[in-house]
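Narrative summary of target 7.
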Amino acid sequence: MEKSQLDEIIDFAIQREKDAVLFYQGLQKSVHFSERRKHIRSFELMEEGHIKIIKLIRKQIEQMSIESIVLPEVENLRISDYIVEQNIEGEMDYQDILISAMKREELSFSLYTDLAEGSMDSGIKRLLLKLAAEEAQHKLFFERIYDDEILSQD
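Modeled conformation, tokenized:
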């Protein structure tokens, strides 16, 4: 496996996270309530943290090896599997924001998983599965919020 291939994958993942940051920045401009804006800002900061995690993965690969990457098992509440994202015009409510966030993470997870399944190189496959696991953890974060704050409402 060539270093340039790994760099391309990591650069791609970083760009996806930067796009997510821009998405949440745009949402902040479209909401009118400061409490909602604070929530969205925390999501933006989380995505910025994801960029740092991916850069740490790069360093781990450079300093050790791709085989040293731990592939965690991530719980899947499967909430996003049963929710359809609506095409919202105008201001999104908190539930819409959470659904959108879950779906973005779900799509990223699927992308990395599909790419991993198509890879013949074991190192690239491992890297893509690590990125998929990171996205699964992000989706779980939003699913737990959704479960606690939306589904648990009386």
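The two ends are 53 Å apart (CA to CA).
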